[in-house]
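REVIEWER CHECKLIST
Item 1: Sequence provided? yes
Item 2: Single chain? yes
Item 3: Sequence as submitted:
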Amino acid sequence: MLHSERELPLVIAHMVQKLRGTVLYSQLERQARVSLHRSDIKLESLKEDIKEFLKISGWEKKLQNAVYRELNVHPLPSHPLATAEHIKEPLSYMRRAQASWEKRILKSLNSMCTEQSIPLARKRPTIEQKELLSKWNEMGTDEPDLSRFRPVYAPKDFLEVLINLRNPNYECSDQPSFRSHLGLIQVPLQVKDIPELTEYFKELGLNTGQLGIDDSTQVPPELFESEHIHIGKKVLRQQDSAAAQQYVRQGCPTALRAELWALILNISNQPEDMLYYEQLKANVIQYDLLADSLIYKDVKLTASNDDFYFVFEDYLYQVLLCFSRDTSVLEHFAYNSASPPKSYIRGKLGLEEYAVVYPPNGVIPFHGFSMYVAPLCYLYHEPSKLYQVFREMYVRFFFRLHSISSHLSGIVSLCLLFETLLQSHLPELFYHLREIGAQPLRISFKWMVRAFSGYLATDQLLLLWDRILGYNSLEILAVLAAAVFAFRAVNLMEVTSLAAAEAVLADLSTLKVMPLLQIFLFATVD
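Item 4: Structure as written out by the authors:
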């Protein structure tokens, strides 16, 4: 993680700055002061005695988990003089493309606002507030008129933007030897090849036990599953985020998944967290946003029509409405290529001092956004904890699936990785689909942008997300997408149109994720 020992002071200063002001920081200070009254704390060895007390009392472990969370989420400063925009996204043409895309989204939102004569935000009348509060736990029964609203954009709109993305410094040539990538993504980014992926995902190897394979009925549980569960319980007792992250690379037992994911994400659901959630809820009750109607519309169009997730409609509204008000989400824009959209107080258009972030969390929901939350409803039934886990998953992973960046887990790199894997591993299939006008990315993009939510059966999706958390990477989405094409290759070689190819790949709900990944990664190595 560190490039040299000289960077260590910079990293430590970065960590201290991030943690200072947090609840944990004040708790550690308070515990250190309390320990001064203990008889086993000696003045001559004060520093070491306090450190030992914090270790024995479990506070050292909490600090380690907090530091580990920061290392996983926030990029370390590559240089003391690195600018904020460089940390957000080092490539200027990516920054320009993202800024242009944001303007397009905001224009779509504003035009809807103007056409429908609907304010971006309004305070609810008292009667309306009471009514919303009374039906907070059954919002799914409400049937508001959403016919006037449309999603601000859909994944296919975003794909067209990515297809047109170009590096102005990269001169494209007609010589086949120079430009060998025949896919839709035409930007020169570094992505892993099969040997690099097999090394990176080595814990998924054929010789390593995996939940999703070795817990099947044909394999006696004593050979893997029982021992894996035993180790999982030990990891939970130790409350070590790093150990939990390593553990879930082989999959989570169903009974332990919720606790293990919360441990990896450093979610503890303390009283102050529950209070914060209640404050967000109060804000929802008090104010009505145009973004709320976009959330309602998205849930009705997606999760409400899904056989796996329609029962969680109420949870989805609660989480997403609170999420739209959460200004703490704005912190992730420090390492996100995107910037939060701004609106202006009525009559003050163009005056920066009257500009406000809209929605308050800086994230405009798009078609399918609610599917990031839906699978988590199987794991968490307490709204505030469900909310915290989703928020952490979003600021770690999901935001990368709808912003333009050069990050390895960014959607541009995932698309390029998918096309590169397919072109190098199954060139005949790739060329066939390209020739009939069925570019594979046009089919797989919607899977990746939703992290396969709504496409895989829930048990298989959770096994996939185990690995996303375990490797702190979204690259496995591109690998799985390529593996699906490899699995259906024989049928796809017979199709003659994009519609026919889409029909072959229309239903992924019967697929088993882990066998597909293992065969693609480890049975293809020469």
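Item 5: Key structural point noted by reviewer: Confidence is low (pLDDT under 50) at residues 174-179.
Item 6: Recommendation: ____
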